[in-house]
Design goal:
mainly alpha; 5 helices; single chain; 162 residues
Amino acid sequence: MRTDHDHSLRQHLIELLKGGGAHATFDQAIAGIPVKLRGQQPSGYPHSPWMLLEHLRIAQHDILEFSRNKKHVSPKWPEGYWPRQPGPPTSGAWNASVKSFRQDLQTMQKQLANPKTDLYARIPWGDGQTILREALLVADHNAYHLAQLVDVSRLLGAWPER
């Protein structure tokens, strides 16, 4: 019975990380943003699509690395978690950031799917965190900022109203 509950929890966590359900997925949130709008900040809004994408990538990478690498050093808060400029620095930066985000998300999902990963054990180099907590943190953080990305897309006229 416990194994069934453990497997079920892992599957629910993986689905939560994938997104969808009650929220737009990562792929839906970035799909319609044209190159010319990726560095644009809507009037009165503090972030551009690029800033949100990079923040998502940086934060998710930090949480993943913290959960699996005791030598990982987190970026300085808050400036290390946001890009310095509103637009991608190179023509390939957007795609590289998208690729990196997807890879780290997949790595986190694989970590959760592995039955050898103890979801409840404290991470030895942390101060009480567990893999379960870190997975929930990634899901929560991603959902929050993906919603902002959808809002920015709407404000820029790039979100397809359905």
